[in-house]
Design goal:
Blueprint (H helix, E strand, L loop, with lengths): L2 H52 L7 H7 L7 E6 L2 H10 L4 H7 L2 E6 L2 E10 L2 E9 L2 H49 L17 H49 L5 H32 L8 E4 H10 L6 E5 L7 E4 L1 H17 L6 E8 L2 E8 L31 H11 L3 E7 L3 E9 L2
Parallel strand pairs: 6-8
Antiparallel strand pairs: 1-4, 2-3, 3-4, 5-7, 8-9, 9-11, 10-11
Helix pairs in contact: 1-5, 6-7, 7-10, 8-9, 9-10
Bound molecules: adenosine-5'-diphosphate (ADP).
Length: 441
């Protein structure tokens, strides 16, 4: 069921319940009011009857009453002695049990079909009497009958009006949503640039559209980087392949000496090795990218990790500045992956700074460790700072040097898996500082 239909149904049921309850409340309270009012008037009539018939009041005689005091509709009055014979006629005239009730309490209110009645016990010189007045509340009944007719019709009209207004408002409110759905349907991989209109950024639909648009922004960025990756990958693969094919065609174009064959094979082998390294790095990156949590985490000493790392690099080019740990410095990590990430950064610093020394700092900060690798190399052009983490991306000034542009993407992913962060500061021609922050374990 569509939201519009569901809301309309809910509105109709709510309107039906609310209007019915309101109608019922109006009817019952009116009935109650008239009943009470009429019993009150009956009470007055009972008193009057008692004055006239039992106390033989001379001021209010029967004639005065009939002439000047308004009688109730179809009013009947009785004054019945509460002796044996009177009790029987009480039960017979009204209902079985009235006599008993009247002996127990002073006054009794009762219904006789549609008529209302009041019986009151009085004691006069000649004995105990019951004064009873019954009458028909014609005005009340007419009013209630009128309500019985008017309330259902009025109620139905109200419900109809409420549902119509509700349906119109729901339709109006959902219209922008339908337009958004229509537009969202048109957004495909080839039209990822389309965005939903945001009319009111503060209402729910505006917020939904903004969230959807920002999701599209992220998707578009992911698509773009995927496209860039495929184009870079094919470019990187094509270079060694072109070299291999060219060399093979050249050497096979005519008879060659043994040495020429050997030289050609060496070139082919070298290019094949390049391709091999590239595919291995790509595989490693794909493996890391597919991880959402760190595999085989363990408690590792960051100092031991750094010492093992520097052993693999030429010591004469390294300048170390390690802040000693008071207790041992540990992180929860994967030794192999962390080693790979830091080795990439150190390798880059050495590669892109010729023969200049590279400084490796280690410091303990509140809640985290800071590792900085600082070189005085070629630096990274400012416009390319945010691209160097894309797989296979190489800055313009680095393309003359060996490399495939995978190391940084891999290092970043690994450091993020360790809940850490990696960032670069660089000045072209002056050098680069790579900073790694890792949380305490
Ligand atoms: P590679 O070094 O194999 O090209 P990376 O992924 O390790 O690939 O680095 C990506 C790019 O970032 C490099 O091509 C280079 O342009 C830039 N880069 C990384 N580290 C440095 C550095 N220390 N100095 C200058 N440029 C760097």
């Amino acid at each position: 069921m569509k939201i519009r239909d569901r809301l309309t149904l809910m509105l109709s049921v709510t309107a039906l319940l609310a209007v019915s309850m309101l109608g019922l409340a109006i009817y019952l309270s009116t009935a109650q009011f008239h009943k009470k009012e009429f019993f009150k008037r009956l009470g007055e009539r009972v008193q009057l009857t008692e004055l006239i018939f039992l106390e033989k009041n001379e001021v209010i005689s029967e004639a005065v009453r009939d002439r000047f005091l308004q009688r109730l509709d179809l009013e009947e009055e009785y004054a019945i002695t509460l002796k044996r014979s009177g009790l029987d006629s009480l039960n017979r005239l009204f209902y079985q049990g009235l006599a008993n009730e009247l002996l127990k309490q002073d006054s009794v209110l009762f219904w006789q079909g549609q008529r209302q009645g009041m019986a009151k016990r009085y004691s006069v010189e000649s004995g105990d009497y019951a004064v009873i007045v019954t009458a028909l509340d014609v005005f009340g009944l007419t009013k209630l009958n009128f309500l019985k007719k008017i309330l259902p019709t009025g109620g139905l009209l109200c419900i109809g009006l409420l549902v119509a207004v509700g349906w119109f408002s729901i339709n109006r409110a959902l219209m922008p949503l339908e337009r958004k759905i229509e537009k969202a349907r048109r957004i495909s991989a080839s039209e990822l640039g389309l965005r939903l209109n945001v009319f009111n950024p503060r209402d729910e639909l505006g917020q939904l559209a903004m969230t959807f648009n920002s999701m599209l922004d992220r998707l578009q960025a992911a698509f773009e980087s995927q496209k860039q990756f495929v184009s870079n990958a094919s470019h990187e693969m094509r270079n060694p392949l072109t070299a291999i094919i060219g060399e093979a065609e050249l050497v096979l174009s005519k008879e060659r000496s043994k040495q020429e064959y050997q030289e050609a094979m060496e070139i082919i082998l070298q290019e094949a090795k390049r391709m091999n390294t590239l595919t291995q790095q790509l595989l490693e990156l794909a493996k890391a990218e597919s991880l959402s949590t760190l595999p085989d985490p363990e408690k590792i000493s960051i100092e031991v990790c750094l010492v093992e790392l520097i052993e693999k690099f030429p010591p004469q080019r390294l300048r170390l500045n390690f802040q000693p740990c008071e207790d041992d410095c540990y992180i929860i990590g994967n030794q192999y992956l962390l080693h790979t990430a830091l080795a990439n950064l150190l390798e880059n610093a050495l590669k892109y700074s010729g023969s200049e020394p590279v400084s490796l700092h280690f410091a303990v900060e509140p809640q985290r460790y800071r590792i900085t690798i600082e070189d005085r190399g070629i630096g990274i052009p400012p416009g390319e700072m945010d691209k160097i983490f894309q797989p296979l991306y190489r800055a313009r000034n680095a393309r003359g040097l060996k490399g495939h542009g995978i190391g940084l993407a891999l290092s970043k992913k690994i450091i993020e898996l360790h809940n850490g962060s990696l960032f670069f500061e660089s000045n072209v021609g002056q050098g680069t500082t790579a900073t790694v922050l890792l949380p305490f374990c």
